[in-house]
């Protein structure tokens, strides 16, 4: 048995990103159930997850329903003490919990002015003073955490922890809206954009559901500042180097082309998430390098 996790649109649901990272980044198996925001899909799905009202919501293998990312993080840490969700060092663990709690409850101006959108990046969004104040507070917290824990890694409390998962959606906002932060904060943002789990989430978010008009902005655009994907493209026809999908093992029905070679997948989503960022997928890269 495994966990179930209800999520919203990957491109836009910052809370869902945070919840999913608590599984994928720590090697905990989970089955996701995707529901489109601003539609009847999410409330309809959540009827089977009472008393939850929002995504993400977790169901444990025993059938217990646990909404809210802080509750999910604590429950997973209790059930999987060796997964490393919180730092093993008591002080580091306390600092990480402080960080997660403030992220869960704060930064309303930043959230409102800069909703998460992983499909675009802008040159400028004219952040008002309230957003600049949130950015200043973020950098204060991040600098404090590193100083308190003595972290020498790209992360806030040593090894990647639940605290970093909580701040991943903020890092994407800084990347999407080209928000002004100092060099240390930007290094932290770039570490998030390069994190393997985040890259997989974004790759899926580029293709899983249509654009949501609510998130459209007229700001001038720029390229996504994260790692540049390999130049794959979807193609029709056969001639693939593999007969079984690298993810499911099922027969190939769809294909992409990369560096003059064709690779097959069992459905359009498997192909398209790979086209979005081939390097994010270890199963595909093993096939690519074979």
Automatic annotation (TrEMBL):
Keywords carried by this UniProt record: Transferase
The keyword Transferase is assigned to this record: yes
One GO MF term attached to the UniProt entry: transferase activity
Keyword match Transferase: yes
Pfam families reported for this sequence: GST_N_2
InterPro entries: Glutathione-S-Trfase_C_sf, Glutathione_S-Trfase_N, Thioredoxin-like_sf
Domain GST N-terminal stretches: 12-78
Protein name in UniProt: Glutathione S-transferase
Native source organism of the sequence: Paragemmobacter straminiformis
């Amino acid at each position: 048995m495994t966990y179930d996790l209800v999520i919203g649109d990957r491109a836009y649901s910052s809370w869902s990103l945070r919840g999913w990272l608590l599984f994928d980044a720590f090697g905990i198996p989970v089955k996701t159930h995707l529901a489109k925001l601003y539609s009847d899909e999410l409330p309809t799905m959540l009827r089977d997850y009472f008393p939850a009202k929002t995504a993400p919501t977790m169901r444990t293998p025993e059938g217990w329903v646990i909404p809210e990312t802080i509750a999910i993080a604590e429950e997973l840490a209790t059930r999987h003490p060796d997964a490393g969700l919180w730092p093993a060092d008591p002080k580091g663990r306390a600092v990480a919990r402080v960080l997660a709690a403030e992220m869960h409850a704060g930064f309303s101006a930043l959230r409102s002015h800069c909703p998460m959108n992983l499909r675009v990046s802008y040159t400028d969004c004219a952040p008002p003073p309230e957003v600049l104040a949130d950015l200043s507070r973020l950098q204060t917290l991040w600098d404090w955490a590193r100083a308190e824990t003595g972290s020498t890694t790209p992360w806030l409390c040593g090894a990647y922890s639940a605290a970093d998962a909580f701040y991943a959606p903020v890092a994407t906002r800084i990347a999407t809206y080209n928000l002004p932060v100092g060099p240390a904060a930007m290094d932290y943002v770039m570490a998030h954009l390069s994190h393997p789990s985040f890259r997989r989430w974004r790759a899926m978010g580029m293709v899983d559901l249509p654009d949501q008009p609510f998130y459209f902005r007229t700001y001038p655009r720029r390229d996504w500042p994260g790692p540049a994907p390999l130049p794959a493209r979807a193609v029709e026809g056969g001639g693939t180097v593999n007969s079984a999908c690298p993810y499911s093992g099922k027969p190939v029905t769809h294909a992409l082309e990369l560096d003059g070679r064709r690779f097959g997948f069992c459905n359009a989503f498997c192909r398209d998430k790979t086209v979005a960022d081939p390097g994010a997928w270890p199963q595909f890269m093993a096939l690519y390098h074979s």
